Amino acid sequence: MSATIVVLYHSSHGSVEAMAHEIAESIEQQGASALLRTFVAKNAHDIVITKDDLINCDGLAFGTPTRFGMMASQAKSFWETTSDLWLKGQLIDKPACVFSSSSSMHGGNEATLLNLSLPLLHHGMMLLGVPYDVPELLATQTGGTPYGATHVAGSANSAQLSKDEIKICQSVGKRLTHIARKLK
């Protein structure tokens, strides 16, 4: 049974976009459809999220860079427009996961992942983390948490993901697709 997963992100310097592409590729390797969506069209290939995308999807991967431990304002502005979906319960029981990037190892990734989770939980979505059976979670010297996939870009804002970060992103896409199919 095919599933459609929205991979929704905002990226300032390219690292969150790189993570979104890894997650989307993993989703498609599982035979599902990945719809890459952004909050603001910055490039010609960007497709801006619509509420219908959320209503019609079977799962959601949501990521932004960290902004002092919080989601990017572009994402917050969008979620503030979704009260009508909340009132109708249109996202209840859809699986979701979160991902983020920061400039430093202690730059707020975990706080941002928790912040990204809040609108999803309010909408009744089922939040998936990264279980410890993903070996890269214990081995990583860069990004990756049990709350979601992360990337540490460094002071140069490198969009180059480490091997561990790539594997964690791929595991997130695979797990999200697996759960979305079970629930469909």
Automatic annotation (TrEMBL):
Pfam families: FMN_red
Keyword set, alphabetical order: Flavoprotein, FMN, Oxidoreductase
Cited InterPro entries: Flavodoxin/NO_synth, Flavoprotein-like_sf, Flavoprotein_WrbA-like, FMN_Rdtase-like_dom
TM segment ranges: none
Enzyme class: oxidoreductase
Keyword Oxidoreductase set for record: yes
SUPFAM superfamilies: Flavoproteins
Start and end residues of each Flavodoxin-like domain: 5-176
Gene3D superfamilies hit by this protein: 3.40.50.360
An annotated Gene Ontology molecular function: NAD(P)H dehydrogenase (quinone) activity
A cellular component annotation (GO) from this entry: membrane
EC number: 1.6.5.2
Similarity annotation: Belongs to the WrbA family.
Protein name: NAD(P)H:quinone oxidoreductase
Gene name per UniProt: wrbA
